[in-house]
Write a structure and sequence with these properties.
about 400 residues; mainly alpha; 2 domains; 17 helices
Length: about 400
């Protein structure tokens, strides 16, 4: 690694370690990780036998169990231990962006933008969600597809899907990259889907109903997205905050799935038919933006999904998204996840935090919608493309 690439990695390491050590309480999602780890070490090998605690593919359960095992052996604390693999994934993303810049596949300053990105610092360091791990694999899959290395790209995407399911959204845009034939695309899809399917097979045999309930039927949380905005507006107007789980938003959950699946299919078909001219990076960015706009029930960490791919070719819209998402996340943690950044608030301070959450939720949704419209307009055949332009 060159000195120019090493410096942003070291800065990213220092910043994230500082945040992890400053916010080391076992609260919110980290507390749920610890409950799953106790279940795994003391009761059962099957994380899906828990109740509404583990909506992820299997590999993360091993990290949870290892983090608690280390704590019980007197090595570190669970809250710090469980975040360290995510920290490593963040550093991997910075290194990948630096390497991509050296190859001419990314902006020269892309690695620095991610190293300093406030959404990444909050999600990885304070919140402790592990989306950086699948995002690193997704970014690698995109870069390999850009270089025409389809088989390696499929393996990288498969690793991402096996870690957290959402990278599957990129599958058609990477499988058909470079004008690949249907046979090549099918081979790509089989390679990408096989690791996750193999990992899930023992759990399907052991308890198919639990696997369906916990992972496959998971509908999301109305903390962000348009359902999160609706929830925030109801709180603002009535003073009563509705519950966030999908079972309390059945119509919104169903509408979200229908709207996004229709949009995803239409986008994939348009790219395949060359009605939209999108290289792998732009196609993956487009589908992640479409998810941000169309799927209503979104957790806080979903705000990170588009960041690494967007920073390959950063636009002004990426800065607007970072600002809105950061405001929303800070408000969310203070208002709805006490203990992540600060203890419970009361009175005017609590109302201010709620206002920041709603403002950031609306802002990030609007930015993503305008960004998507601009991206699709620029992708139309014959258009004057505005690479690097904002919303």
């Amino acid at each position: 690694m060159t000195r120019a690439a090493l410096l942003p990695v070291l800065v990213a390491l220092a910043l994230r370690l500082a945040v992890i050590l400053a916010f080391d309480a076992s609260v919110a999602d980290v507390a749920r990780y610890e409950r799953v780890a106790r279940h795994l070490l003391d009761q059962s090998w099957n994380p899906y036998a828990t109740e509404r605690l583990y909506p992820y593919p299997p590999p993360w359960a091993a990290i949870e169990a290892t983090a608690l095992g280390l704590e019980r052996a007197g090595i570190g604390s669970f809250a710090v231990n469980v975040k360290l693999p995510v920290l490593a994934a963040d550093l991997g993303i910075v290194a990948l962006l630096a390497r991509a810049a050296a190859l001419g596949l990314a902006a020269p300053f892309a690695a620095w933008l991610f190293a300093l990105h406030p959404v990444s610092l909050l999600i990885t360091g304070a919140h402790g969600q592990f989306d950086a791990i699948p995002l690193g694999f997704l970014l690698l899959a995109v870069l390999l597809a850009e270089r025409g290395r389809a088989s390696s790209s499929a393996l990288a995407l498969g690793a991402g899907i096996a870690t957290k399911s959402f990278p599957v959204l990129a599958l058609p845009f990477l499988a058909f990259a470079g004008g690949a034939s249907p046979r090549a695309a099918i081979r790509y899809a089989a390679t990408a889907l096989a690791p996750g399917a193999l990992l899930l097979a023992p759990f399907a045999v052991a308890d198919a109903a639990a696997l369906w309930r916990e992972l496959i039927a998971y509908g999301g949380i109305a903390d962000f997205g348009w359902a999160g905005v609706a929830r925030g507006v109801e709180w603002l107007l009535t003073g009563v905050l509705p519950r966030s789980e999908a079972r309390f938003w059945p119509a919104a959950a169903a509408a979200s799935k229908l709207a996004f699946l229709a949009g995803w299919a239409a986008l994939a078909l348009a790219v395949r038919a060359r009605r939209l001219e999108l290289a792998p990076q732009r196609g993956v960015l487009a589908v992640l933006l479409a998810f941000a706009v169309l799927y209503g029930l979104q957790s806080a960490q979903y705000l990170l999904w588009l960041v690494p791919v967007a920073l390959l070719r950063p636009e002004r819209a990426a800065a607007a998204h970072a600002a809105a998402a950061t405001i929303g996340l800070v408000g969310f943690y203070l208002f709805l996840a006490p203990g992540v950044l600060h203890g419970p608030l009361e009175g005017e301070a609590l109302r201010t935090a709620g206002g920041l959450w709603l403002l950031g939720s609306v802002g990030s949704l609007v930015v993503c919608a305008l960004w998507l419209v601009r991206l699709l307009r620029d992708a139309a055949p014959g258009s004057l493309r505005g690479e690097g332009r904002g919303v």
